[in-house]
Specification:
Structural class: alpha/beta
Radius of gyration: 25 Å
CATH class of the largest domain: Mainly Alpha
CATH superfamily of the largest domain: Hypothetical protein af1432
Number of strands: 13
Shape: elongated
Number of domains: 3
Length: about 500
């Protein structure tokens, strides 16, 4: 946990840090289940974090990575967290995790002008990102983590030359395709961010009799120096004396071997000459990213630049008719704003509606028939930079219900959503349905919408440039969901 403020000069002022080793993931292969004990540890830690954040009156932004995104019972854990701590945890993809790590690095080291490879070794996965000038050039997430590999190759805490070589081969085999992609992209700087890398760098300094500073930010180690430390870890692991190595935190002793073997293969597989440490990574990147999105929403009242670029890329890829999509977005946001006192949603939900409005017809690229379902699939399975997995799922669901059936429990994707998300989908889909209907002929005939709300009715007064009989007829057919959601009759009245 990092509690921090970001000033207008993009400087992070850290007020408080806290870290608890929870180790949610415990499987040697795919982390299919979070154990009850692991969930208990995670919930307890987040409850304490929530109290600390509350004492600073901090906005809480929380993300979950590999252990949670792979778990079949993740919703059980996330629901418990929300109910006990009030923290709404968002699950991020490996790609989004890598991007956020790169954002953190950019604010820690002067590497923005360099083609930089960032390596972050986690418990369940390892992220590698190449960035340049603030943009991500390549990002990969592989299921290689120090906990995952320890459980697989050293479950009893015993290492032999044979198990070490087996682990080394597994890392090499899994990671080689990624190495090839990263080498093709090219890089002239390498940054390490994770606890594993910091531990190994600290051990390198201690082995050389040097002072190990509290912050290792900017410390650079050569390939030879790092390899010597990794070989020390391997020898000590075979002798069961790894916990005695200078500079190693005893809490990391049981997993440092697997982490060292991952880093070893990065050095070998990509011919890395040296590596520099960044003190900032995912947490700090999340803080900067959240601050930037809040600034964009407050200043421009629409999608942040990165999110908009992601949406536009998908529109271009699937040949969306942009004039129609943009007008549906315009009408949908007018309705959203006009009903603010009815739905009481925030700018975050407004962003989701904006994204879904622009993307609602991407499914036409597959087939006009059932295109709303195709849209849902495309959105949910695309890499939308700047959006979390949960946000992408919401956007997909909103787009799916812009026509035809209302959301139903028998729909598996909708049914998997938590109750709070289902409400958001129903509200935003009801708005999108009417906005889509009001541009039935894709001629932008409905220019503006005003709403008059009473206890029993919502009357939309439509400013039109021409006869709007077909648009009104189409919207009338789609208003049922809004009437269900707000328990008011919806009236559509062309004006002048």
């Amino acid at each position: 946990m990092v509690i921090a403020s970001v000033n207008t000069h993009s400087t992070l002022h850290v007020l408080e840090r806290n870290k608890e080793v929870v180790r949610l993931g415990s499987s040697a292969t795919d982390m299919k289940q979070l154990s009850a004990e692991a969930m208990d540890r995670g919930v307890a830690a987040l409850q304490r974090f929530a109290v600390e954040a509350g004492s600073h009156k901090a906005l809480i932004k929380a993300v979950a990575t590999s252990a949670v995104r792979e778990a079949n019972n993740r919703d059980v854990f996330l629901d418990r967290v929300l109910k006990t701590s009030g923290i709404d945890v968002e699950v991020v993809s490996g790609v989004e995790e890598g991007r956020l790590i790169y954002v953190g690095v950019l604010h820690s080291l002067p590497v923005i002008s360099r083609q930089t490879l960032v390596i972050d070794i986690g418990g369940g996965s390892t992220e590698t990102v190449i960035g340049s000038e603030g943009d991500v050039v390549a990002v990969h997430s592989v299921k290689l983590g120090h906990i995952r590999l320890t459980k697989r190759f050293f479950p009893d805490g015993i290492a032999t030359p044979e198990t070490i070589e087996a682990c080394r081969n597994a890392v090499r085999n899994e990671w080689t395709p990624t190495f090839q992609d990263l080498m093709r992209a090219g890089f002239n700087e390498v940054v390490g961010t994770s606890g594993t890398i910091k531990a190994l760098v600290g051990m390198t300094l201690a082995r050389q009799g040097k002072h190990v500073p509290e912050s290792l930010n900017g410390v650079r180690v050569s390939r030879d120096e790092m390899m010597a430390t990794i070989n020390n870890v391997i020898s000590a692991s075979i002798d069961s004396t790894v916990a005695l190595l200078p500079g190693l935190d005893p809490k990391r002793a049981d997993v440092i071997l697997a982490g060292a073997l991952i880093l070893e293969q990065a050095f070998v597989g990509m011919n890395i000459a040296d590596l520099v440490v960044s003190r900032f990574a995912l947490c700090e990147g999340l803080a900067f990213d959240t601050a930037q999105k809040m600034h964009d929403i407050q200043q421009y009242h629409h999608l942040s630049s990165l999110r908009y670029q992601s949406i536009m890329h998908l529109c271009e890829l699937y040949q969306v008719r942009l004039d129609h999509a943009e007008h549906v977005k315009f009408l949908a946001l007018q309705i959203f704003d006009a009903l603010q006192n009815v739905h009481n949603l925030t700018d975050r939900e407004r962003e989701l509606l904006e994204a879904a409005s622009l993307l609602h017809d991407v499914g036409y690229h597959i087939s006009a028939e059932q295109h709303h379902k195709h849209s849902e699939y495309i959105i949910a399975n695309s890499d939308l930079s700047g959006f979390t997995n949960d946000e992408a799922d919401l956007i997909a669901a909103i787009a799916r219900y812009h026509r035809k059936s209302h959301p139903k429990k028998k729909h598996p994707n909708y049914n998997r959503l938590p109750a709070s998300s289902k409400r958001i989908v129903r509200i935003l889909a009801s708005i999108l349905r009417i906005a889509e209907g009001l541009d039935r002929r894709q001629l932008a005939i409905v220019r503006n919408i005003r709403a008059v709300v009473t206890v029993s009715t919502i009357e939309f007064r439509l400013e039109c440039s021409d006869k709007s009989d077909i648009e009104v007829w189409s919207a009338e057919r789609r208003k049922g969901l809004m009437e269900e959601v707000f328990k008011r009759e919806v009236l559509l009245v062309p004006c002048g």
